[in-house]
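2024-03-11 09:14:02 DEBUG pipeline.ingest accepted 1 chain
2024-03-11 09:14:02 DEBUG pipeline.ingest length=393
2024-03-11 09:14:03 DEBUG pipeline.predict start
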Amino acid sequence: MKFRISLLLFFILLNAGKSYSQVTLRGIVENENNNTPIPYAMIFLSNTSIGTLSDSLGHFNLTLNEGKHELIIKSLGFTTLNFELEQSEIQNRLYRFKLATDDLELTEVEVVSKRDQLWYGNLEVFKGFFLGNSTNSLKSKLVNPNILILDDQSIPRTLLAKANQDLIIENPNLGYTIRYLLHTFEYSLAEKKIFYGGYSYFTEYDGLSKRKKKQIETNRKKAYEGSSMHLLRAIYNNKVEEEGFLVRRLRKIPNINRPSEEHLDSIAQNIRLGRPTPYTIEEFARLKKLPKTIDQLEKNPIDLYQYITKEDAGKITLHFEDYLQVIYTKAKPDANYILPYKAENQESLIHFLNGKIEIYENGSFSPPYDLLFEGYMGWLKTGDLLPLDYKPL
């Protein structure tokens, strides 16, 4: 079964990586209605471990590395504020951030305490596609699943999920507690497609023994190697092959042996109405199962740097119209990754939806929904997610 996945995972345009300069963002969080300060609001860069709280007077300082960031400001009883900012545009002054009251959160939606068997079944589906099924994912725990609103009725054969509060995820293998503000989740059984996204904030475990810290660092490095973050950082630094990636162009060409959808619909209607047709039911079923496209893979690896332009510091633009087959040669897939054949390497497929993507030094990309990952990278989920400020030792 092949799933198209927009990472976003997990991966909503964020930036907090290695840089040569830092700037402090000074701000105050205020109530939009009466301009009173909001104490102890949470301020963080999404998908990182970089964050802080406003003080009793609503003030905060947050250090930013070079590049583009997505800043998230949230407080109980107020709508979450999120926006992009460029570190180079931040001035040495106090910024005021206004939060609007959230009537829905203030009144608090009543959560039904009794869950039926169907809800628990949907919860397992959600955890499988949100947390994942890798070694790290299966050790992870969704602490507060009861805040989830799971909907399998609005769209046929589709599971939708949302939450009015942060999902709390404990990941002992990687040593993180993750607060995940789920923005969207949609799993289509008919299309075999999963799409989800949100804003995440990582807190490292503390009080660990030296032995445990060493094991966690080993696990993190293993999760990083071959990941989409690793690949995008390698592309940014023009070290794709050096980092262990083989990248080839893959084209999907129309399958001339498969009739058009209009022709297939016409055949189906004739069969239903008992009209003459040159196809038997068995032949029609065979035609229906034929793939719409045929994969055409180039033999030699591609030099991606010929498709890159660099206009601003800390950012490159990769222009590419086709698919990329990506093989990571320095590690085998996770033991739980099941294929009909034995895979010696991590193999993925990346689809550029709009012909170009901006890539940042820390391995984030923009626009956040313009890359689709299939294969191994698409199989990895939140249970293998690392913050964008992660640096392998």
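2024-03-11 09:14:41 DEBUG pipeline.report The chain has eight helices and 23 strands.
2024-03-11 09:14:41 DEBUG pipeline.predict end
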